[in-house]
Amino acid sequence: MELLRVDNLSVSVGNGPRSAAIVDRLSFQLSRGQCLGIVGESGSGKSTAAMAIMGLLDKRSLNVSGAVEFDGQNLLQLSPKRLRDLQGTEIAMVFQDPMSSLNPVLRIGDQIIECVQAHRKQPAKEAWSRAIEVLSQVGMPDPEGMLKRYPHQLSGGQRQRVMIAMAIVFKPRLLIADEPTTALDLTIQAQILDLLKALSRDLDMAVVLITHDLGVVSQMSDEVIVLYSGRDVERGPTEQVLESPQHPYTIGLLSAHPSLDADQDRLTPIPGAPPSIWERPSGCAFRDRCSEAVGNCTEATPPQVMIDKSDHLVACYLRSGTTPQRKTA
Amino acid sequence: MTNPALNIENLSVEFASSAPRGVFEAPSTFRALNNITLSVNPGEVLGLIGESGSGKTTLGKAIVGLVEQSSGSLVVNGEALDATKPSDRRKLARQVQMVFQDPYSSLHPRKTVGYTLAEPFRIQKTAERSNEMDLVQALLERVGLNPQHAARFPQHFSGGQRQRIAIARAIANSPSIIVADEPVSALDVSVQAQILNLLDELRTQENMAMLFISHDLSVVRHLCQRIAVMYLGEIVETGPSKALSANPRHPYTAALMSAVPRVKAKNKARSKPIVLKGDVPSHDAIPCGCPFHTRCWLYEQKGRPARCRSEIPKLVEQAEDRQSACFFPEDVAVSAEGA
Prior knowledge:
The complex is a heterodimer of chains A (329) and B (339). With 329 residues, chain A is α/β, with parallel strands linked by helices. Chain A is built from 11 helices and 12 strands. Chain A has helices spanning 46-54, 80-86, 98-101, 108-119, 124-137, 143-147, 156-167, 186-202, 214-220, 238-243, 248-256, and strands spanning 2-13, 20-31, 35-39, 62-70, 73-74, 91-94, 174-178, 206-211, 223-228, 231-237, 305-306, 313-314. In chain A, strand 11 (305-306) and strand 12 form a beta hairpin. In chain A, helix 4 (108-119) crosses helix 5 (124-137), helix 5 packs across helix 7 and helix 7 (156-167) packs parallel to helix 8. Chain A is globular and about 70 Å long. In chain A, 46% of the residues are buried. The mean pLDDT of chain B is 89. Chain B has a domain at 249-261 and 270-339. The termini of chain B are far apart. Chain B has helices at 56-64, 86-95, 113-124, 129-142, 159-171, 189-206, 217-223, 241-246, 251-259, 297-301, 306-310, 329-338, and strands spanning 6-16, 29-40, 45-49, 71-76, 79-80, 96-99, 177-181, 209-213, 226-231, 234-240, 316-318, 322-324. Chain B is 35% helix and 20% strand. Chain B is an alpha/beta fold. Chain A binds chain B through residues 41-42, 141, 155-158, 185-191, 193-194, 212-216, 218-219, 239, 242-243, 252-254, 256-261, 263-264, 266-271, 273-274, 289, and chain B through 51-52, 158-161, 188-194, 196-197, 200, 215, 217-219, 221-223, 242, 245, 255-257, 259-266, 273, 275-276, 278-280.
């Protein structure tokens, strides 16, 4: 069943000729219990897309257009009050840095209870026992004692568990996790990923996982979208995309990082650096760094084409079937 | 035989853990580093891995003299240096240089890149003033930047370019060893590879030694010839990088290796990752016996042998130039398959 449908979502800053798109016409669908990975480097617009879906962007300074349909209603057009009813109950979010997203001067218990009571009027006692419940659900040792502690007394992994506990208080149907494990150590990252997977299965919760780590995506998500400079350059079933990547950027990303299982003499870096949104080249945003760029690439944004009539889509002229004109050297 | 570029013996670092409660009470201390012994040869990159709190950054800082060592000796290129002695400080800075993690905060924002790169020559008095600019331009060229950009400020460069500048500053006086503390983790994946290739070139072309501190195991395995694994201020395993990552001899290394999220290989079933329970214990409550036994999967599998709880395992030489601080190094690889 389709739960979330994002249609031509664009976020831009500035207006008229001085405007630039941070997220450029992003579309996807997500069903219950599914996990979608969004990968990209810093500045690719992945976090902004998440904030836009969650309805957390300041509409006075950013132009948000398109549609975000959650369970049949367009979140971008809801009244602030209706949106607030959904945020934290039906749709929840987990952020990257658990230290800066918890209030340092409030005890863990008070923060979870605040979250419970913000949406449901219930006596503190009931809220307290709900807090214990969710903390044990996220695998926290000694949940009762934990409620009386302050964030600084917790380790990074424990803080992230608290953040996840607060997110699942109302058994949301959609969880947006923005780099949930980037600030954590390897062994702790493995624990948190395990937890997210189990929760998604138990609560039948859809997850949008935002990360820069292709390994994490490979482990967690059913589908993946690769973002580059605000545009989705490649998407499809995770295994298929990672096994036979089609876009030169995806190929570059995969070969730029050394593997733990295979030997390489020398890494093949992608030359240059990602462009800022103000200096994005015309046509394909990746063409300046692409070794295969041809004449067409400067003209217009390449359309998405299907690979082998599957769900695997790629936005690149080289793969579009119509023979592109080689740049005459 | 040539001297090792760096030789550390029994290095320990202690930090005060809390302020004394009364006037007459001595402040309590804890050991951030406990009897570290290691050496790095010229032309070798030693990778230092471990989780946060394992002491890998403290070890890097102790080597360049940014934290005070409480005991132990430091021999750089055959010369014993004491970072706490002011007379040795300048010599140490000549021999040991550091590249920091964040290239946005490690370069002076209001000095031109040319000025920043000329400073090592001025401080060590290794170049004539008239010659300085040529050397700076040569440095920039060596790290793959345009020599004409010496007059620019750090803000004009991208993250990867700034890290190149930081590396240029470190190699200015051809030090014996470079300590690189997470030099690529602040950079995007597509840019990381450029810096890793540059570091590898410096090693092969100039026979530079390097201590490479990182939490990214695949990067370490790619770049380094040898790896040392740290846990709670101690080295628990060392060995040649390929052998160590393929065939760990310490259960902690095995768990680290299996926790790396990998891109699935074609037609290859993933072995189930070993998920360690709990967090790294805090430094003022280091478990007795083997410090790792509270989280160790092998300890559980072996039926909790009493030896692990009572005796501290030492770093013991193994075959093939390897060392492990585990009582059951042979069983790690065998058991990890079935874990």
